[in-house]
Amino acid sequence: MTHDLLTDLRPLLTAEASAEAHATGTEPGDLEQAVWLRLLERLDAQDPPLDPHGWLRRAVRTESRRNRRTNRRERPYGGERERPYGSEPEQPYGCEPAEAGDRSPEQLALAAARRRALHDAVRRLPGRCPRLMEALLSPRDLTYREIAGELGISQGSLGPERSRCLECLRRLLTQEVAAHEARG
User: Fold this and answer.
1) How far lies 179's CA from each of 113, 144, 176, in Å?
2) Which of 48, 45, 62 is nearest to 9 (CA)?
3) What average pLDDT score do residues 36-56 get?
4) Mean pLDDT across 122-147
5) Integer Cα distance of 94 and 91 in angstroms
6) pLDDT of 102 over the 80 cut
7) Using an 8 Å Cβ cutoff, are 162 and 136 in contact?
8) Is the pLDDT of residue 179 over 70?
9) Cα–Cα distance measured from residue 122 to residue 66, given in angstroms and rounded to the nearest whole number
10) Residue 9, pLDDT score
11) Could you write out the DSSP letters of every residue in 77-105?
12) Which pick of 110, 140, 145, 169 has the fewest CB atoms within 10 Å?
């Protein structure tokens, strides 16, 4: 049973991992290994997925998002990268632009105020735009397929709808900025 399941899922996992790996900057094989490990842990705990194909697709996306977040946050340890023999040393990592942790309290307060203003403006948008924009701004990093399912619209109409909502948001924020500048 387990062997048949693994044999049946192998082509799907290879295809899904190849499709998702490019966006995360990881190797498809690494993504496959992580998902195989998750599946084997479930099978070892006598908790096989009810819908193995659906579970596998969700697991690949979950691992892909985890890798993307990890790649954004991780920084190599040490001052220099490995370089070929005889080449000039590169800039040390300490010379890179400051991270969010290095910002002053004033900068953090201004960023928080901008986020609040953005979310307030999003809530004032017409029609389905508030729900769509909240889904796009979500920290859960939803895919277009997940957003379309959550909103009950087709995935193909998501792009044009997003464009209309962004245009409405742009007009709304432009009016607010102009109103605040007029007062001084």
Assistant:
1) 17, 34, 5
2) 48
3) 83
4) 89
5) 8
6) no
7) yes
8) no
9) 27
10) 84
11) SSS-----TTPPPPPPGGGSPP-GGG--H
12) 140
Please give the distance of CA 76 from its chain centroid, rounded to a whole number: 21
Q: How many residues does the chain have?
A: 184
Q: Quick check: 71 pLDDT over 90? A: no
Across the range 146-173, mean pLDDT stands at 90
Show the tokens assigned to 120: 């307030």
Contact 28, 21 (CB under 8 A): yes
The token pair that represents 10 in the structure block: 């192998």
Residue 174, pLDDT > 80, answer: yes
pTM for the predicted model, two decimal places: 0.42
Tell me which residue of 166, 160, 134 sits closest to 147, measured CA to CA.
134
Question: Which long-range contacts link 22-31 to residues 24+ away (Cβ below 8 Å)?
Answer: 23/64, 23/68, 24/64, 24/65, 24/67, 24/68, 24/71, 25/67, 25/68, 25/71, 26/64, 26/67, 26/71, 30/67, 31/60, 31/63, 31/64, 31/67
- The tokens for 76 are 């190599």
Residue 106 CB partners (closer than 8 Å, separation 6+): none
- Using alpha carbons, list the distances in angstroms from residue 166 to 32, 37, 138, 154: 36, 40, 15, 18
